[in-house]
Amino acid sequence: MKYYKLDNPVWNSLSETHKSLAIEYDGTKFYKPQYCPFGGFKKIDKLDLYIDKYSDLTDNFFIVGEKPVFNDNIIVANNLLCSQMILNTKIDFEIKEEIIELKSEKHKLDLFDLVCVVYPGFFMTKTADLGKYFGIYKNNKLVAVTGERLKMNEFTEVSAVVTHPDYIRKGYAKQLIAHTSNYIFDEGKTPYLHVAETNIRAIKLYEKMGFKMRKKISFWNLKKRTANNGNE
Fold it and tell me: Residue 120: its pLDDT value, please?
């Protein structure tokens, strides 16, 4: 298995399963921003020019992997250092709740609204179209979700592990992680995920579910320089 592809997950996703969603420059690839404001690169040459071009499409985005180079039109808002974790076997965990695939337009709106409550800025209008997303409803309200984001030929990223604050500690996240990860295995792929290294609680949860630490990887949050942030 080509684990090295996980070192540059955005580039390789846009070279494989998500190729049709790529905005491609020489040595640099970005997702169409309505799907996911992420980019990856293999060449430093002219990277600053390509980042500048992409910033005309969305003024807040991420480069995943090595530190990028950029010009004075761009600032680094944050370097989110994440633990990249991988799962090697299916998860044996009892599913007690009814888990449904979120595929209707109503489901996707509910998904967007829930993720934006907990993690604003990471979920775009078409992120739900990157893969399968699953959820748990209570009294016609979507309260917990998990799904697929970055996808390669051999690997799929587990993402949007989100539970509404009013419904935490009910085991919903564990059931959704198990359901989504096992679905990825059934697709013939290996699940992996990214979690902020400061999110110790989540890391411990993933470890209990069987995920293993693979490496640290940076999500460089870049923004177009404006009059308001020019002194940052």
Answer: 83
What DSSP letter does each residue of 166-217 carry, written as one string?
Answer: GG-SSSHHHHHHHHHHHHHHHTT-EEEEEEETT-HHHHHHHHHTT-EEEEEE
Task: Write down the pTM of the prediction.
Answer: 0.94
Q: Which among 153, 143, 199, 129 is positioned nearest to 176, based on CA atoms? A: 143
Tens digits of per-residue pLDDT, 5-38?
A: 999 999 999 999 999 999 999 999 999 999 999 9
Q: What pLDDT is stored for residue 230 in this prediction?
A: 59
Answer whether 219's CB lies under 8 Å from 62's CB: yes
**72 CB burial (10 A radius; 0-12, 13-18, 19+):** exposed
Environment class of residue 173 by beta-carbon count within 10 Å: exposed (0-12), middle (13-18) or buried (19+)? buried
